[in-house]
């Protein structure tokens, strides 16, 4: 995320600004705070990690209607819309609907599902107007956030209640997102507190198949919620949250049955969610800080073949304390209890051997930040110890350093390790997948293995931040990752069986920790503002991912991540432009290029989004938004386990009216 100074139109004033910028430090230019790197407030210029911040201004200018759409602007983040209700989101490869190497948080609350791994994005529709910022860490974050933060962390941070002290009414109608309605009201709680209540409802139309028929994947959802922020004293804060949500999602799957011919199943999933969250923060005059976070989260998903309900109880703390002049100790720990119940229909091929389970995860981290002001160097060394019932003790250390050769340049480097623990499905599930392509139908029965180990990554990263001129700044990162214990599956061989009186090639297989791999990549972001009214943001990312899976003559192996090499784009480009025509009219454009996904049969594509915004009065805004304007429809991704044709994401228009009072 890049910030810069705005130039004057006169040459002599430009010279003065050039001189002035040489006197400024990078901290004064990159003067915004982030909290996700070390669970403390830090200036973006000082973090030794690849960090990008999506601000509320970015959200307003993007025309995006969901979190995954916003994440497209971040270099190194892979985003593909699978259909009307499903997304594939990952960082630095391994993309898919159930992308397992990414941790996503909302105000510090994990929304990662341990069933398959990954995130059900359809269950997390937010009021984007109340999002303060989205902090995206590219690279391992296991030392602070624990398991599953393998390739990155996304932390969605909402506004404090004191910043939403108005009525807000927002209404949208469109061709694909047919309805989007939101309401929020904020008020005071005595002399030291503020609150807000909110409600939102959204409805999406079906996507299309390549032949132009409807995919039957329309969906709608709604939520109501509450947040309060109370400050008993100037150095104490209490944050409270509560939310209820529900939705209905149409779908068609060709997940075949054990007892019937494979066919497409048309169904509607019901989703329900609720959570309560409380966070207490205490600061001292000496610079010490103590934070205690607790939440209860319940999620339920009901479909014809699967009824999954899960309750999570989480309590954690962290303590930040200066030790002398050079050291700052950051440590903490916590416990998480997860109880679930999974019921599957006996006629469907997805089954779990244990319908109900519970487990406890405990963790402790410690980190020491050492400052050497005379050398303009800062070094952070830390590790996390985490215990889970599947793989036991996991250790996730990191070493990070920053060096500031000049006031406007920062060079940083990091060496770190992170792990992905096996999901519930990988240790307890089984699934039958059928393909009717070729001369003979083929069925693979993939079974869990309670002996699989955690997937690991050892990462090396080097980055550079700089202000190149009063109008131009840049942030670049090079990384090299080495992966071990990647999940694969192995089998003793195939056989021919009669299924429904049809000769069928049958392959029983089970999960094993057998794969290795490495990835190399480069990411850069530039921001340029030639005038007060005109701004451009550019992002480019390159990814080269190689997967290696041993194959044995008697125990043939195939990689569970076999499509990962070409399931994420090798090259991605994003260019955004914003122009303030006058005080009332604003124009935004966003063009993106995404490389081909060869394993999915999806060609490269280029998208263009545009937004024209009119603000006749201070509290009224009317926006006309167009998405995917360059072609009528295009495919972006497919689901891993459900053998459906790729959906076509259509060109769409949207009209939004927002009113605050």
From TrEMBL:
> One Pfam match, by short name?
TonB_dep_Rec_b-barrel
Gene3D superfamilies membership: TonB-dependent receptor, beta-barrel domain, TonB-dependent receptor, plug domain
Q: Domain of life of the organism in this record?
A: Bacteria
The taxonomy runs: Bacteria, Pseudomonadati, Pseudomonadota, Magnetococcia, Magnetococcales
The UniProt family comment states: Belongs to the TonB-dependent receptor family.
Annotated Gene Ontology MF terms? siderophore uptake transmembrane transporter activity
Asked if the record carries the keyword Membrane, the reply is yes
Protein's UniProt name:
Putative TonB-dependent receptor
Taking every annotated instance into account, which residue ranges of this chain make up the domain TonB-dependent receptor plug? 46-153
For this UniProt record, give its keywords in alphabetical order, as a comma-separated list.
Cell outer membrane, Membrane, Receptor, TonB box, Transmembrane, Transmembrane beta strand, Transport
The yes or no answer to whether the keyword Metal-binding is present is no
Q: Which GO terms describe its cellular component?
A: cell outer membrane
BP-aspect Gene Ontology terms:
siderophore transmembrane transport
User: Which residue numbers delimit the TonB-dependent receptor-like beta-barrel domain?
Assistant: 193-629
Which ranges form a coiled coil? none
